[in-house]
Amino acid sequence: MSPTTSTILVTGGCGYVGSHTVLSLLESGYNVVVLDNLSNTSFGNSTNATTAAETPEALKRIQRILSIEDKPIPFYAVDIVDRPALVNIFESHPDISTVIHCAGLKSVGESGRVPLDYYNVNIAGTVNLLQVMEEFNVRRIVFSSSATVYGDPPKIPIPETSPIVASMSPYGRTKVFLEHIIRDMCVASTVKQSDYEKEQTRKGAAIEKDYRWSAILLRYFNPAGAHPSGIMGEDPQGIPNNLMPYLAQVAVGNLEKLTVFGQDYPTKDGTCIRDYLHVVDCADGHVAALEKIELEESVGNFECKAYNLGAGTGCSVLDMVRAFSKAVGRDLPYVISARRPGDVPNLTADPSLANKELNWKAVKTLDEMCEDLWRWQRNNPKGYRTV
Ligand code: WQD
Predict the structure, then answer these.
(1) pLDDT of residue 53 exceeding 90
(2) N or C: which end of the chain has fewer CB within 10 A?
(3) Of 171, 211, 246, 276, which one is the catalytic site residue?
């Protein structure tokens, strides 16, 4: 199936990773439809989601980068819990071949305060989506999972064979549950196909249907940075939870200083180590996953497989403060505080499986990540919105 004939539905396509993935897909020649409930993206000039529904800022930025302002990107201001709205999208776009599923609530801290919201949107919303996909015979999904599924892993760097645990935040548990749900669905579809084929053969009838699913679970480590154009980047609502967008707000003066959550971890400088990868590399990983599914299905393989999307290098919080200070051109202020509940000392990927089987590798450097983030943030100093 060539890019020009297949349409990809990107849920959460106005979010940080989702919007960069939409851009990467369009650059690779795919047709794209975008769904987003606009709960964590800029509304641009509009003051709320309903007035921004026609063309969210994130998609306008993509159009500017690609100089396709005259070519609207099909967009639906929809929440994945809204089943009739999902049905409408699939009815309106019968050419959707695959879903890249990035939509979901993603704050570790917030999930501990409102777990039911996280289980409703992330779990029930995804089950909703999968059921509607099945109804429309769309059986390919690339799922936005997370390194958080590894909990506090026994081995660094972390291979995909490291056990996945449900002992972190409710947010982390939704990712673990969803990996199991998607895997169970794929296994059941293979059994269903086998039973169907046996029955058809018994009846001497042709095999006309294929119930099998293909799924790739992408375990993101820590996406960071912004598009090199400076036109697009992380544009969260509210005060950022994650390190790099928070640090970027400090750099533009919207926040006073960074609070470093703990300096007593068993690491080189006492602060947590993470595997930061450029968001553009992360986005390209989704296109690589899509191409992998298409390749495997062309030879009759229908699998559910997880891959780490990481650079394979670990950086401490203080490493990142130093690297971003260098890009900004001045030392950014920080204070050390107590540990943040749920943080683990080190999450660094072993990316060799994705390198080999997806033919994908994080190629952008830490300096590029910081320079691109600074270019984006200084172009967009308006800061977070407390909506
Ligand atoms: C990184 C490091 C913090 C903020 C989580 C999710 C993951 C993904 C990314 C959604 C940690 C420290 C942070 C701050 C700090 N979620 N930190 N001060 O926790 O590795 O991953 O977010 O996309 O699935 O698990 O990312 O950026 O929050 O934290 O010291 O103000 O920076 O303690 O060590 P994390 P993070």
Answers:
(1) no
(2) C
(3) 171
Q: Which residues contact 122 (CB under 8 A, 6 or more apart)?
A: 104, 105, 171, 174, 175, 178
What ipTM is given for this predicted complex? Answer: 0.97
User: Residues 157-176: pLDDT tens digits?
Assistant: 999 999 999 777 999 999 99
Q: How far is the CA of 194 from the centre of ligand 1 (A)?
A: 43
pTM above 0.80, yes or no: yes
- Distances from the Cα of 121 to the Cαs of 65, 111, 115, in angstroms? 31, 11, 10
CA dihedral (179, 185, 191, 194) in degrees, to 10, reads -110
Determine the distance separating the centroid of ligand 1 and the alpha carbon of 110, expressed in angstroms.
13
- Specify whether the CB–CB gap between 237 and 296 falls below 8 A: no
The residue whose CA has the least distance to atom 28 of ligand 1 is: 242
**The residue count for the chain:** 387
What number does the ligand 1 atom closest to the CA of 17 have? 23
Q: Which atom of ligand 1 is nearest to the CA of 271?
A: 34
What residues contact 275, with CB distance under 8 A and at least 6 apart? 147, 157, 221, 222, 310, 311, 312, 313, 314, 315, 347, 348, 349
**Exposed / middle / buried, residue 116 (Cβ in 10 Å: 0-12, 13-18, 19+):** exposed
At 328 the three-state DSSP class reads helix
3-state DSSP of 239-306 = CCCCHHHHHHHHHCCCCCCEEEECCCCCCCCCCCEECEEEHHHHHHHHHHHHHHHHHHHHCCCCCEEE
171 is catalytic: yes
Structure tokens at 160: 């995909």
